[in-house]
Specification:
Creatine Amidinohydrolase, Chain A, domain 1, Creatine Amidinohydrolase, six-stranded mixed β-sheet, 19 helices, hydrolase, aminopeptidase, Pept_M24, metal ion binding, metal-binding
Length: 604
């Protein structure tokens, strides 16, 4: 299987590992150190080699940071992980704080003393982060020290080796644009910014630019690497040569200079010594990259990674691939739902069993490359943990009488999928149906939205929450994230969230996933992927509008819908959606599944 169920967390590691780290800091003359959930690429998912926060604290979530001083420590996580952190971390050693409401900078400002030296790994903290940390240290009379090596690496005895996953070429028939043309597009953008070169630190940006895919990171086809792109001439691709077959090496050598990662800093210094104006993204590039350029005499041009927007705005080939992948995956999911409705009411099915069966159905397509993330298979109280990962230790039987939440996705070569459904198992209560329907109303509001060009995700986010707010509820995650084209299931810069400040543009793919999570009881989330499109003209309207095309074609569970809470327009949306699901997916499944689908998509 692509998914494993080992329990990766060990809260008991906190005390001994914190003691080891404090001893190492003392040896180096440091009074404190920050440990982010990050690698040198600021990736969301990092290889075991870079899971330093997990090694130190036991926390396995995808976002967080720990702070260790001589006499105090804490771990900071966002609202997705407030339950998980209490289960995975020794809170006597690392008290938990909310990353947004109680940021690490506030915690440091209260505890740093004059003369303190606070260390950070120069490759794990961005230019923007370090600026803020320097301000905090200066206000306290302390000093921020950027380190070329990480103290944890000196004391982590069984640290895994760096990954050397093989790289493959991504065919232009799926990419829709040749790598050479993409490079020319980025070089044109550099000229507009009066930059002599740019530094790319995001593996998905590099994968998109060179039309390659890799296997260094679980569930995401990324080759960990760096690149520099000059305004003229060949880019340099800093990648471990062990990842390249002869044919891949030859193809990449035709596009770029291939250099080992150990020489990345030397390449940056060479740009600096040439007096180059070098573009980098201050929110993504480690401070060590910026310092290598400026220390050698170069100048920085701070701007968004120039690949992010072109990568986010899918071309027609990529969009057609996504449509095909979603239809394939919808047929898989209908097969799973039909099976689930037979098995779950028996009371013996557990979270792992459901996860394994869904992956089995996806594997049966014959074209599954991987799952796009560890399936969130949440029964009862585990469903209330937004980013729950089932292990053999946490595995629960799926109870009859409560909703079951399953959030999963697939990596197919023609597209990346991500879908969440909340399913009834037996009779559910009036409150459960009410909560489900409030979430459904928010989902429909996003899917139905029409909005003028220039609208940001932050402006749309309220639409998904208003029905919940009116009932006194909310959820502590964004409503939607960007999705790549056989790349990361979480992709920027587009998002539907309070922090989504990037205008949405046609061709962007986003998730639509409001939720509600009564702690200790169950979770509800409904997620489809949507493409931003040019919307049809509105009669009498003055401005051209954008809207969404729904990619995901899987039924919503009508057994959890309280119809009296839906407006006529919302009922129409639900019926139209289910009609499309029935027409598109019905011919792709077996006779038994087609009968199930007819019942699941009946008009209401």
């Amino acid at each position: 299987m692509f998914q494993t169920f080992d329990d990766l967390s060990d809260p008991s590691c906190g005390a001994p590992h914190a003691a080891l780290l404090r001893a190492e800091l003392s040896r180096r003359g440091l009074d404190g150190f920050l440990i982010p959930r990050a690698d040198a690429h600021q990736s969301e998912y990092v290889p075991p080699h870079d899971c330093r926060l997990q090694w130190l604290t036991g926390f396995t979530g995808s976002a967080g940071v720990a702070a260790v001083l001589g006499d105090a420590a804490a771990i900071f996580v966002d609202g997705r992980y407030t339950i998980q952190v209490r289960e995975q971390v020794d809170l006597d050693i690392f008290p938990a704080r909310h990353l947004i409401d109680e940021p690490v900078t506030d915690w440091l400002a209260e505890r740093l003393q004059p003369g303190h030296k606070l260390g950070v790994d120069a490759m794990l903290h961005t230019v923007r982060e370090v600026r803020r940390l320097k301000e905090i240290c200066a206000q306290a009379g302390a000093e921020l020290v950027t380190l070329d090596d990480n103290p944890i690496d000196s004391i982590w005895e069984d640290r895994p080796e760096p990954p050397v996953g093989q790289v493959s070429l991504y065919p232009v028939e799926l990419a829709g644009k040749a790598a050479r043309d993409k490079i020319a597009q980025i070089q044109s953008a550099l000229a507009d910014k009066k930059a002599d070169a740019c530094v790319l630190t995001q593996p998905d940006s590099i994968a998109w630019l060179f039309n390659i895919r890799g296997s260094d990171v679980s569930h995401t086809p990324l080759p960990l690497s760096f690149a520099t792109v000059p305004a003229q001439g060949k880019p340099s691709l800093y990648i471990d040569g062990r990842k390249l077959s002869n044919s891949v090496r030859d193809a990449l050598a035709d596009l770029s200079e291939l250099v080992e990662p150990e020489d990345f800093k030397n390449g940056l210094s060479a740009l600096g010594m040439a007096g180059a104006n070098v573009m980098l993204d201050p929110g993504l590039a480690g401070i060590g990259i910026a310092e290598a350029i400026t220390a050698a005499g170069g100048a920085l041009v701070e701007a968004q990674d120039p690949v992010l927007l072109p990568k986010a705005i899918k071309n027609e080939v990529e969009l057609n691939g996504a449509r095909v992948a979603h239809i394939r995956d919808a047929a898989v999911f209908v097969n799973f739902l039909c099976w689930f409705d037979e098995e779950a009411p028996k009371g013996e099915l557990d979270e792992i069993g459901a996860t394994e069966k869904l992956e089995e159905f996806r594997r049966a397509t014959g074209v599954l490359k991987d799952i796009s993330f560890d399936t969130i298979s949440g029964a009862g109280p585990n469903g209330a943990i937004c980013h729950y990962r089932v292990s053999r230790a946490s595995n629960l039987k799926i109870p009859v009488g409560k909703p079951f939440l399953i959030d999963s996705g697939a990596q197919y070569e023609d597209g990346t999928t991500d879908i969440t459904r909340t399913l009834a198992v037996g009779e559910t209560s009036a409150d459960m149906k009410r909560h489900f329907t409030l979430v459904l109303k928010g989902h429909i509001a996003i899917s139905s939205a029409r909005f003028p060009k220039g609208t940001t995700g932050a402006q749309l986010d309220t639409l998904a929450r208003i029905a919940l707010w009116n009932a006194g509820f909310d959820y502590d995650h964004g409503t939607g994230h960007g999705v790549g084209a056989y790349l990361g299931v979480h992709e920027g810069p587009q998002r539907i969230a309070k922090t989504g400040t990037v205008p949405l543009k046609p061709g962007m793919i986003l998730s639509n996933e409001p939720g509600y999570y009564p702690a200790g009881e169950y979770g509800i989330r409904l997620e489809n992927l949507e493409v931003v499109t040019e919307a049809a003209d509105i009669p009498g309207g003055e401005r051209p509008m954008l809207g969404f095309e729904t990619l995901t074609l899987v039924p919503m569970d009508l057994r959890l819908v309280e119809l009296s809470l839906l407006t006529p327009a919302e009922r129409d949306w639900l019926n139209r959606y289910h009609e499309k699901v029935r027409e598109e997916i019905g011919p792709l499944v077996g006779a038994k599944e087609r009968i199930w689908l007819e019942r699941a998509t009946k008009a209401v």
